[in-house]
């Protein structure tokens, strides 16, 4: 069952008492917990609280502190409407905040927290939603992204067969000049970044990369993979 954040608790979280002091500590907070352990607990908790929703929880350290990001990869509901997005993301952040503390004083320009948290809807969610609603240009995923990376070579070409309206490269064929771990370098000083595995489909000839968003969940790039003929 989802731990509800009641209006009274919301008030306590945001209440600035005399002299501007504000202090909130979540019920799941553990003092001195390292970032990896914290992220692992949050990931398990979100999975338990939001049934049939998939998350990717990642961490980041920087000069001002540390951050945990929960990216939504799939969910049973349709989050196309902005109000639905905001409501769902607020619920996710509320659950994440139960693992931390915040101390601040607005009058003294002071703020301290155990970690910064962010929840966002990942591109993989829009790809999954488009599949449920019915995708255009479906491609049988017989070749995984990992296998594609091993087989694609400099000298191969990619022809862009379909793309969102207005894409300037639609219909063009570009030579692959370099294959790197995270992208392909194409002629004309451009590159194609590899997506998440869930947003990639290849049948050995056609390559489909999902780039959907709330404006167009089924947005994608469809390429014809033209392999260099052996000498």
Provide the fold topology.
Elements: H1 7-14, E1 21-25, H2 35-49, E2 54-62, E3 65-74, H3 82-97, E4 101-105, E5 110-113, E6 116-121, H4 123-133, H5 145-151, E7 157-162, E8 173-179, E9 183-186, E10 190-193, E11 200-202, E12 206-210, E13 220-226
Parallel strand pairs: 3-6
Antiparallel strand pairs: 1-4, 2-3, 4-5, 7-8, 7-13, 8-9, 9-10, 11-12, 12-13
List keywords for this structure.
seven-stranded antiparallel β-sheet, elongated, 2 domains, 231 residues
Note down, in words, how this protein is organized.
With about 230 residues, the chain is α+β, with helices and mostly antiparallel strands. It has 2 domains: about 5-120, no CATH class; about 135-225, no CATH class. It contains 5 helices and 13 strands. The strands form 3 sheets. It has a 7-stranded antiparallel β-sheet with strand order 10-9-8-7-13-12-11. A 3-stranded antiparallel β-sheet has the order 1-4-5, with helices on one face. A hairpin with a 3-residue loop joins β8 (about 175-180) and β9 (about 185). The N and C termini lie far apart (about 60 Å). The model is unreliable at about 5-10 (pLDDT under 50).
């Amino acid at each position: 069952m989802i731990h509800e954040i009641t209006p009274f608790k919301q008030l306590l979280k945001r209440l600035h008492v005399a002299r501007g002091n504000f202090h909130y500590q979540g019920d799941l907070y553990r003092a001195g917990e390292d970032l990896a352990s914290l992220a692992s607990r949050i990931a398990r908790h979100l999975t338990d609280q939001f049934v049939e929703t998939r998350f990717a929880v990642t961490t980041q350290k920087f000069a001002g502190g540390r951050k945990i990001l929960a990216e939504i990869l799939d969910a049973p509901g349709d989050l196309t409407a902005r109000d639905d997005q905001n409501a769902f993301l607020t619920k996710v952040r509320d659950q994440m905040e139960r693992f931390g503390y915040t101390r601040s004083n607005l009058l003294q320009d002071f703020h301290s927290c155990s970690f910064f948290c962010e929840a966002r809807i990942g591109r993989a969610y829009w790809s999954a939603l488009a599949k449920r609603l019915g995708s255009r240009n479906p491609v049988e995923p017989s070749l995984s992204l990992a296998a594609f990376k091993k087989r694609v070579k400099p000298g191969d070409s990619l022809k862009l067969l379909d793309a969102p309206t207005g894409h300037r490269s639609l219909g063009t064929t570009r030579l692959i000049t370099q294959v790197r771990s995270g992208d392909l370098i194409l002629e004309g000083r451009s590159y194609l970044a590899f997506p998440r595995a869930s947003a990639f489909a290849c049948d050995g000839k056609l390559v489909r990369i999902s780039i959907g968003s709330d404006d167009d969940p089924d947005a994608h790039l469809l390429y014809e993979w033209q392999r260099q003929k052996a000498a």
